[in-house]
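Deliverable D5.2: sample structural annotation.
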Amino acid sequence: MVNIILTSENNPVHAYKDKKDFGYIQLQSVEMVINGNWIGEKKRTTLMRGSVELLQKYVATLAKNNMLAGKISVSEFLEDNCPENYLSRLNDKIPYEESILQFLKSVDKDGPLMTSGGKRILRFTDYDPSGTAVDILVQHDNVDEIKAYNAAKKTAGANLPG
């Protein structure tokens, strides 16, 4: 199941400020993921965009208690091997590096980018109403860089007053 994240006014549809007739539904799920021999939970989010009218109809028809059937799937690609249907999501009205920021796979908001063979990994999320989509993942190989970052973060956290 996928949760619909409500606006501060408890509305499932978030209207765009500059184009009030269009908006999005913010979806969130917690998925169990297996990484090697470890199992964990990962929070996933995605946006469903469209006209406010159609989004409201969609929620009214298919949502129950602000939940939708299905799941959020992840598709990852090396930057130089990303299919056009995913690259078309980039905003061509702004510089490439700026438009790609939200799709770069990283440890966290401030952490290093995940790479494979020195190439950046792009990460896209999609809502799948059928719940059958299979994740496409690219394993990063800059393990030492990420371990060093996590160790430094842990050390910094241990030195905080509190």
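Annotation notes: Strands lie at 2-5, 14-15, 22-35, 38-51, 67-68, 71-78, 115-116, 119-128. Helices lie at 52-62, 84-87, 96-100, 143-158.
The annotation will be released with the project's public dataset once the embargo ends.
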